[in-house]
């Protein structure tokens, strides 16, 4: 009797795992297809030959951000939207470490959650999402935008208290 219960429990767990994975894949398939299409577009229309990291940025319009390399190993960033593509060598702008230093200089107690390239009002930017401890509110969240070209601070969005 214990063997039947154990087999039934293992079978039920396997079925739950199988359908959980199928559900997860079904939910994410559209996003993964958008990312695959953007990478293929970047390969076809730029000198990018290897994609290392792919992110989605939603600002004025959605962009897929591809960070990778060209055929001689130089780091590149490609911003792909439905109707526009921007491509820059990573060395043509500031890097993530420089932006992180700028954020910490501006807000010393910032706990950076995410940093990624993006496009704000047609300008290539670094978006930095971070939180700061606030005595009255607990934590407050911010988005800072820095120019990709020179690292100049462009804007800060302060999110309302949760």
From TrEMBL:
Coiled coil feature spans: none
Q: Which InterPro entries match?
A: Cystatin_sf, TseB-like_dom
Q: Where is the Cell wall elongation regulator TseB-like domain?
A: 38-80
**Name by which UniProt lists this protein:** Cell wall elongation regulator TseB-like domain-containing protein
Tell me what organism the protein belongs to.
Paenibacillus rigui
